[in-house]
Design brief:
The complex is a heterotrimer of chains A (227), B (496) and C (250). Chain A is an alpha/beta fold and 227 residues long. Chain A has one domain (48-222): NagB/RpiA/CoA transferase-like (Rossmann fold), CATH 3.40.50.10420. Chain A has seven helices and twelve strands. In chain A, helix 4 crosses helix 5. Chain C is built from 13 helices and eight strands. Chain C has helices at 9-14, 16-28, 44-48, 52-65, 77-94, 97-106, 113-120, 140-145, 151-157, 180-183, 185-201, 212-225, 234-239, and strands at 2-5, 32-34, 72-74, 110-112, 133-136, 163-165, 206-209, 230-233. The model of chain C has no long low-confidence stretch (mean pLDDT 96). The chains are: A alpha/beta (227), B alpha/beta (496), C alpha/beta (250). Chains in contact: A-B, B-C.
Amino acid sequence: MNPVISSRQQVLGRIRAATGNPAATAGEAAQRYGRLPRDYQIRGKLPVRACQELFIGRLREYDAEVAECAPDELPATIAAQIEASGKRRFIAPSGVPNAWLVPAAWQITGFECDIDHGLTATEIEKAEGVMTACFCGVADSGTIVLHHSATEGRRVITLLPDWYLCVVRASQIVETLPEYFDRCKEPPALVTWISGPSATADIEMTRIKGVHGPRFLNVIVVRGTGT
Amino acid sequence: MRAVAEHEVLAEHEVIDRPILDPALAPPFPVAALPVLRNLQLRRNVAHAIDVIQAKRARLVAEKPDWQALRASASRIKDEALQNLGAYLEQFEARCAAAGGTVHWASDAADARRIILELLREEKADEVIKIKTMTSAEIQLNPFLEANGVRTYETDLAEIILQLGEGEPSHIVVSALHVNRSQVREIFARRMGIENLSDEPEALTAAARNYLRQKFLSVPTAISGANFLIAETGSVAVVESEGNGRMCLTLPRTMITLAGIEKVLPRFADLEVMLQLLARSATGERMNPYTSLWTGVTPGDGPQKFHVVLLDNGRSSILGRKTEQQTLRCIRCAACMNACPVYRQTGGHAYGSVYPGPIGAILTPQLEQMRHAQSLPFASSLCGACYEVCPVKINIPEVLLELRARVTDQERKQVSRFFDSLYLGLRAANVIFSRAWLFHAAQRMGRTALRFFTRKDGWIHALPGIGAKWTQTRDLRGLPKQTFHDWWTDRQRRTK
Amino acid sequence: MRASLFITCYNDTLFPETGRAVVRLLERLGVEVEFRADQTCCGQMHANTGFRGEAFSQAKRLVRLYADAEAVVIPSSSCVAMIRDQYSGLFEELGNDALRKEFAALVPRIYELSEFLVDKLGVEDVGAYFPHRVTYHASCHGLRALQLGERPFRLLSKVRGLDLVPLENLDRCCGFGGTFSVKNAEVSSAMLAVKLDDVLATGAEFCTALDNSCLMHMGGALHRKNAGMRTIHMAQILASTEHQPVELIG
């Protein structure tokens, strides 16, 4: 009887035949990897304030609304942004501090915020807006990075609503993308890098915002420490 | 479908014969290019699209002083992955499985289609939503699934345009760049059943958004590709602009990711290089709107069943080849075709493959193991613009030359080539170049023969045979009475 | 300083006036020019069409011919690129150690014309006079393979009387590509048409470059169109003086 060779064996067999690779130990692989050239910019060069301003500038280039505030002004700033948006039905992840929602709840008529303890997609669809924290902001590209922790929420909640408010602490802002990777003590299991609202240029290269995913991105940069 | 006269400009709505993107069936490049060269509308669309991206890319590259260092690192990271591909793939498999994913291996296109269909049958899926993946087009997945009772719904705007309009992609990033707004309007109005649809891009995009919303929320099975596989963690990364990817990655119950084996990177941190290069090269942005990374299954977040289908389909035959292996570094950014002066004139369909342009010219024949698409390595003037812009430094001209040699080695064994005027000419030329006196004799003979075709103004306006290909559009100056060598010999004699 | 001229097979046959201009120019700059009568071709046409074995025999011949030359000057950037970029691959595959060594010793002594003038002779003002409007096309091999960079511009900027008009998209391929111009004649012609739009838009009298291959292709179409503009190899511009103006043929 002819042994049936699995596709896996076939493919790996071909690869091995082609690369002629002797089994390398983990140590050898790590050494080889360590010798790869890394002459690109890793550390940021900008002073702290300039870096923040770069981040804000890039976000504004994407038509994101950006506000800055001190830590104790955050809840009021959130309320002001929500008020200005006209959106009233909100979602927030379970880790978002209650304090963030209090002024909005008090001052804005019709404001409702469901905490995501496992909302269905249909329920999330009904929301007009969402607010979360984030893991990091990368100034060079105006990127917000979500690791989907309790304060950032499941991926679906920052996807379906049309209006997204992200709270970024100034201390979370780095200048370069390698600096973000440096901040990851371990590789995260889930990441979403957001650089502007959803867009397409598929029709005659005309850039249109908001195909799927929030069309409106609002960011609050919280200055100072202790937030 | 009527015959198109040469130099005729087609009306905007006219549909061209559907191009053949199956390398086994497509006509050779010089033939396939002809209808496109006559389609001025299409050539204008292509030129406009690539000019936009090129300009944006150039601006961003100019502002990045470490651009060359990034390219150097990216090409070395990919080489490290390729040289140790077996080990990295096995590591990816183990980590992905440990995180709750299932990894399948597909030897070729048929194998991959079979595996995916079986997975869909297990899910009792009769519909599937798709994130754009050129790899699925490579294996001709959609027609296969449709024939087996599974409806496929593309969710990328360009892919919807192509799917509903029954067109074929002509670029690997902006795949519908050959379609203009009124063509899109016509397709959407007809297939989505919308009356009074304007041709403004906003309106068209809104139509697509509405059309897909329900699909995202209801179809439980999705198929994606992968921009990168991370060996260290078993993660998959998908890079996109519209958000349809995120929809497909988070809402369905089951996700099937199809990925070429060459997509693997050693570590998560390698993305710090790749992500800086990819968007700048592909769309001329510092970063594309959404990049998603996930690892196996995360309870409570996203699909709870996750499969990866690792695809070979000829890639392993490119591995281990000294010159050609660099082909597999490709991260599918399409910068090469945006820079290519040939692509600018012909668009993508002329290449007869889902991978067009310079990368297509080297990847397609190799995936076909040099049995098909042999005209593609010759579809280049070797100008090198592609190599200049490739973020992973694939020396495409070098690979083109290597493939030309392989094709010629194959072809020259065929008896029919013995009578091919180009082969005859080149063989003769080689003999002539081997001895100076033969060379000089041939020059004299050539001069004499061409005198017949040389007009009074000293120029040749029409040549027979293969020479007609030149004189179709160009004159040729008649051969001077004295070669340089003659003049020099004369001068030596005179000065002695 | 002695320089051995490798005229190239197509210049020898089709553009001997370029060779004459190179000789006049170099001799005016005090270079003793020699010409090895045994030369034929560098092998590029065969290498680029996939005829490796044939290209190898021509490459071997060239290396042996110039083994003892002090410097080899070539008025064709595509031929220099062939030697620099493809010879070592051919010798790896088909040659032997001795040949590889000979080649390695020779290659630093190979110069494209503008390289020889600017790098070896250290000269930018060659004493030229060419009172015409000229536009410069950057041939792909010179631009990308040889990275000639500013050299052609520095040389042209010192030519008295010359009015240099910048060419839009000067780095875009003209579409010649060797046998590509015949194997893919329609695409080549489409690329040429686009190139000529840019060239004609300059309103120049002459279009120049460092490669007669591109100029043959562009010049052939310009003549067909009766455009009035002519092509001319840069060697001929640089060789031109008040006393000995450029030799124009055809």
